[in-house]
Amino acid sequence: MAKNASVPYKQFVESGNQLVVDDKRNAVNIYCSRPSCHSLIMRAKAGQLVERPKSKLNITDNDILAINDTSAEVEEMQQYWQLPNMMAFENIGFSNTVATGIKFLACADCDTGPLGYHDTINETECYVAVDRVEYATGT
Ligand SMILES: [Zn+2]
């Protein structure tokens, strides 16, 4: 039963210093946030901190509408851990591809999600939202 302790992103008051090491990589192992699961999703330094639109995580019935949306609205950004491909994860599940070309990432063990996304049309990288996973404490 003994599992590594982990805490949510919001508990880090200085997340930029505590969670990021050289080259903007994640300092510690990252886990599923469901207490009964706590599966290892990615190891320390597997990801790199980037900003992408928050709306990428929206699960919508209006996929077609989203594609044709040409509004010049400034998109709200949020931070993600960028991984080079799906092989960089320890444990991750992918949804079916929706009409916008997005696959959603979920915990491979308990299906909690979406934890992030993979844009099958534009990029090979995968993105995990920094505030939807937990972080190992200590070393
Ligand atoms: Zn899980």
TrEMBL record:
GO terms, biological process: post-Golgi vesicle-mediated transport; protein transport; small GTPase-mediated signal transduction
Looking up Pfam families in the UniProt record yields: Mss4
Is Transport one of the keywords UniProt gives this record? Answer: yes
Is Glycosyltransferase one of the keywords UniProt gives this record? no
Keyword list, A-Z? Guanine-nucleotide releasing factor, Protein transport, Transport
Q: What is this protein called?
A: 9982_t:CDS:1
- MF terms in GO: guanyl-nucleotide exchange factor activity; zinc ion binding
GO cellular component, alphabetical, reads: cytosol; membrane
| InterPro entries in alphabetical order | Mss4, Mss4-like_sf, Mss4/transl-control_tumour
